[in-house]
C-alpha cells in the first residue's frame, strides 16, 4: 500500500489576499479582448492568481466582477488579482505601451511565431492579449501589437479554449519571469 495522501486545503499553506496583494508580481499583464464567457474570465483570474500576474485588463464586452458565474471559476481570485475595465482594447493597448509594456497578441496571424521560439526577456514587461472565443483579437487593434504568438497544435483543431490558451502562455512567461 502506498503512503501517499492528498493534501488538505489547510496543509497547502496558501497566502491570504492581503499577503498576495503585497507579493512581488511577475511583470505580466493579461488583457481579455471581448471574451464573452464568464467561466473563461473566472478561469483566467484563477490562473493569474496562481502565477502572480500583475493584473488583468477586461475590454469591451468581457464581463466584469462581481458576478456569480465568474466567481464559480475564479474561486475568489477576483479579490486577489487587480483588474481594470476599458471599453476599447485599443485604448488599453495604448496605455500599456505608454507604460513600457511589450504588447503581444496571442493569435494566429501571418506574422505569428511559435511561443516555443519567442525569447522572453526578464528585463521587459509584457501584456498578453487574448481574444474573443469566436473572432479572436479585434481587427482594429492588430497594428498596435509588438508581436504575435501562437501555441503549436498538431491535431485536427485550429484553436484552443481561451482559458486553456491563457494557462499555457502564462506558464511559458512565468517560467522565465518568476
Attribute tags:
alpha/beta, 6 helices, Alpha/beta knot, 31% helix, 178 residues
Question: Would you give an account of this structure?
Answer:
The protein has one domain (28-177): Alpha/beta knot (3-Layer(aba) Sandwich), CATH 3.40.1280. The protein is 31% helix and 21% strand. The protein has 6 helices and 7 strands; from the N terminus they run αβαβααβαββββα. The chain has a 7-stranded parallel β-sheet, sandwiched between helices. The chain starts with 16 loop residues before the first helix and ends with a helix.
Q: What string gives the helices and strands in order?
A: HEHEHHEHEEEEH
CATH superfamily annotation: SPOUT methyltransferase, trefoil knot domain
Radius of gyration, in Å, reads 17 Å
Mean pLDDT: 97
CATH topology: Alpha/beta knot
Give a quick account of the main beta sheet: strands, pairing sense, barrel closure.
7 strands, parallel
Total number of domains: 1
Q: Which parts are unreliable, with pLDDT below 50 for 5 consecutive residues or more?
A: none
Amino acid at each position: 500500500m502506498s503512503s501517499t495522501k492528498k493534501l488538505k486545503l489547510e496543509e497547502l499553506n496558501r497566502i491570504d489576499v492581503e499577503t498576495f496583494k503585497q507579493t512581488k508580481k511577475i511583470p505580466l499583464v493579461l488583457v481579455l479582448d471581448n471574451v464573452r464567457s464568464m467561466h473563461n474570465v473566472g478561469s483566467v483570474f484563477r490562473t493569474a492568481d496562481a502565477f502572480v500576474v500583475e493584473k488583468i485588463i477586461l475590454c469591451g464586452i468581457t464581463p466584469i466582477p462581481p458576478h456569480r458565474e465568474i466567481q464559480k471559476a475564479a474561486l475568489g481570485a477576483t479579490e486577489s488579482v487587480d483588474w481594470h475595465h476599458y471599453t476599447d482594447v485599443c485604448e488599453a493597448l495604448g496605455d500599456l505601451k505608454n507604460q513600457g509594456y511589450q504588447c503581444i497578441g496571442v493569435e494566429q496571424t501571418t506574422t505569428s511565431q511559435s511561443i516555443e521560439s519567442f525569447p522572453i526577456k526578464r528585463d521587459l514587461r509584457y501584456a498578453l492579449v487574448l481574444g474573443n472565443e469566436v473572432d479572436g483579437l479585434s481587427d482594429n487593434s492588430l497594428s498596435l501589437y509588438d508581436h504575435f504568438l501562437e501555441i503549436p497544435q498538431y491535431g485536427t483543431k485550429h484553436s484552443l479554449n481561451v482559458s486553456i490558451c491563457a494557462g499555457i502562455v502564462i506558464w511559458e512567461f512565468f517560467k522565465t519571469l518568476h
